[in-house]
Amino acid sequence: MGKRMWRRSLNLLAILSLFLSVAISSVHAATTAQPEITLSGVNQLQVGESKELIVSTTNLAAETQITLSLPAGLEFDEAQFKQRADVTEEQISIHREQAELVITLHTAMAMKLSLPVIAAKAGTYQLQARTTTLQSNQQTVTVTDMQSATETTTEKNDSTATVTTPEDNSSTSVAESNNTSSSSTTTASSSVTSEKEFSASTSTTPVLNSKSIIQSRASSTISLKVDQSSGTSSLLTNNYYGGDYQVSGTVWDNTAETLSFYAMMTKRDGNGATPAKEQLLGTVKVASNVQQSRQFTIPDSYLPDVNTQSAGSLYRVRIEARQTTSNFGSANFQLAYVQGNLGLTAPSMVNFGDNLSVTETEKRTFLGKIAAGDQPLAVKDTRIFPASSTINGWQLTVSLAQQMTGASTGTVLTDSLHYLNNGTDYTLSSAASPVASLQTATPGKNTVISDTWNAQNGLAFEPTPGQPKSEQYSGSVTWNLQETPANK
After folding, report:
1. pTM of the model
2. What are 430-480's pLDDT values in tens digits?
3. What end-to-end distance do the CA atoms of the chain give, in Å?
């Protein structure tokens, strides 16, 4: 009996030893797994596009810090990350240290972290994460341009100063006879306006040349193209002067569904206020495989105010066409907060001469002169730009508002008003003729164009020989000032 009990005890001890051996082996196997950091996900982007960089970790201790260096051509979308992170702040935290992201693991766990990055500049970049003892693989990310911006485009900018003539208009009167003299005047006194028109560079001229395509993690693919974005080597910067902001572009979806459009702003530089989390711009039911044009308004109530404090601030704006928070198309651009505007003054009277002869048999050019005491034709720039923003230039043009017309007979001297620009003779019509321009403006500078009027520059009267009668003639012109992209 005693021997049987002893053998049973030995058997139980053997079984218990086996269990302990298995348990100890399992623990030993778990503790000998090597710590590891791996980068994957994004490898190719277009400027303005956003995709996710995947940071995977294995067997890292709690409070381990991972440092990820981001080159200048890639940006971490912090706002987007905070909205979509699958982990809590108790598990991980991220903060910036200059051009690096520092990721702190507060708990020991296997992690697969998605970091949204935005392509800001074309190039090929090598990404690598590291701790004090480990380093990850190198992840190569290639950023390409979608298409080149049109350098010669001089579309109307976020701020436009326009000089137009009143109802009595700029009247240039010319009296031509052997013995009759009369004065000729051009009244071109008009109001100066400053208006914002959303259409973005590092110019403020909006150009449709950016495409941001996000492959959805659901069943559909959404493509968003925004006029204010850029397909060039950096994010397009649009000037903002206050008020509502119009965003336009096209959206394409391979699935018929309802999309919600959102705007999200992140301050990059300056003392402007921090914007709200996001703003719903509207919802649209899209058809399958049809590119649709869309326009939405970012309300003034969402955008931080333009004031003395915010002047010079720079914000990044992200527009999303969202079906769900994981199924969306996006595009990105920048807003430069600009205080001040481009101002334009124009003379109320330009005189082409008195006592002009009606017997002229050859075509002659009579150069205009501003009446004594009248204001000059001048551009005054009072804008304040962000330090990191390229200063946009301006372009001044002139167009015909009214042909030279006789005061008594109503005779029209067709194509007699001209503008000379560095010796090039432009016959004025409803189309704009160039007067002056600056590729890169100087804020605070007052540029007086009429000071350079001479035989090669200025408003001119060129009547057809034998056409004028002995009477007074007058006409009017419209001056138009536009903010244009800086020279690249």
Report:
1. 0.46
2. 999 999 998 877 777 889 999 999 999 999 999 988 888 888 999 999 999
3. 101
